[in-house]
From TrEMBL:
Identification of the protein by name: ECF transporter S component
Keywords for the protein's UniProt record, in alphabetical order: Membrane, Transmembrane, Transmembrane helix
Annotated TM spans: 6-24, 36-62, 68-90, 102-130, 136-160
Transferase among keywords: no
Keyword Transmembrane belongs to the record: yes
InterPro entries on file: ECF_trnsprt_substrate-spec (IPR024529)
Domain of life: Bacteria
Organism: Pelosinus baikalensis
Amino acid sequence: MKTKEIVLTSLFIALSFIGANIKVMGSIAFDSMPGFLGALLLGPAYGAFIGMMGHLLTALLSGFPLSFPVHIVIMIDMAATMAIFSLVYRKVAEGEEFSLKAITLAGVLGVIMNGPVSLLMLTPLLLPVIGIAGMIAYLPVLSGIATLNIVLACLVYKLLPNRIKKVRKKI
């Protein structure tokens, strides 16, 4: 691991803390935008770590609503979401600095992973507590905030100078 990657990862985790304070509902917040950006710039492993830590910070600041085990599952889902988002982007972009096709496909998969897939993973833990109506109520909020986090990350990535995006190629 190089110093530049450690510094950028730390910066993105700090930005996740700021986003964790911008809550929409319970522990649903703007903590994942830096994870998506980190996944684009640094790759799947770094993005996964940033996404996981971002949700941990949100859960800590929210007091672990719905229980600690629920948030462990969400952290795992966030790590998987960031890794898949990064891998799909890199595969479809094929070395381009910015690919709209790759961003769109990776973004759609990111929303699906962060919304419906997350809820499916949480069904055994949440269904007995909040019921089917509660689960359904979470879906548009999770998917909408995931969409906003991804769009913001992609906009920032698009606006970054190419010399910063070149970090992605070296890792």
